[in-house]
Amino acid sequence: MLTSEHLPSIHRGFSGADITEICQRACKYAIRENIEKDIERERRRSENPEAMEEDVEDEVSEIKAAHFEESMKYARRSVSDADIRLLKLAGAGAGATGSDPFAASAGGADEDDLYS
């Protein structure tokens, strides 16, 4: 089972979009595995229908660590270490004022708030 303790080793250097791609690929591997099992089950059923009368209800598939491991084989980072350093430097310079440049919107933000 993949837990939150595994995440630091998985996501180091990857952007949010990169991690999303890794998760989506792992999900697709799990789906592919499930489809292959279904095809095999149907093949066995067609070869010997009497033996399959006590067919067990289909189990719920899970995305397992093996699916993530396979996904990580093809994972690629979209942001280089050099870009990360530049972004950190730019963030440190902008953060000197102690304010987030994206935190405040242009005038009337409270009145235009979508959820108010």
Structure description:
The chain has helices spanning 7-11, 16-47, 65-72, 81-94. It is mainly alpha-helical. The chain has a domain at 15-49 and 59-76: Helicase, Ruva Protein, domain 3 (Orthogonal Bundle). Helix 2 crosses helix 3. It is elongated, with a radius of gyration of 24 Å. The chain starts with 6 loop residues before the first helix and ends in a 22-residue tail after the last helix. The relative contact order is 0.14. The model has no long low-confidence stretch (mean pLDDT 78). Residues 39-59, 93-116 are annotated as: Disordered. Residues 39-48 have a biased composition (Basic and acidic residues). Residues 50-59 have a biased composition (Acidic residues). This is AAA-FAMILY ATPASE.
Mean pLDDT: 78
Distance between the termini: 41 Å
CATH class identity of one domain? Mainly Alpha
Provide the structure class. Answer: mainly alpha
Pfam family, one: AAA_lid_3
Organism: Salix viminalis
Protein name: AAA-FAMILY ATPASE
Write the layout of secondary structure elements.
Elements: H1 7-11, H2 16-47, H3 65-72, H4 81-94
Helix pairs in contact: 2-3
Region (Disordered): 39-59, 93-116
Organism: Salix viminalis
Protein name: AAA-FAMILY ATPASE
Write a concise keyword list for the protein shown above:
116 residues, mainly alpha, Helicase, Ruva Protein, domain 3, 4 helices, 51% helix, elongated, AAA_lid_3, AAA-FAMILY ATPASE
Task: Give a short overview.
The protein has 116 residues and is mainly α. The protein has helices at 7-11, 16-47, 65-72, 81-94.
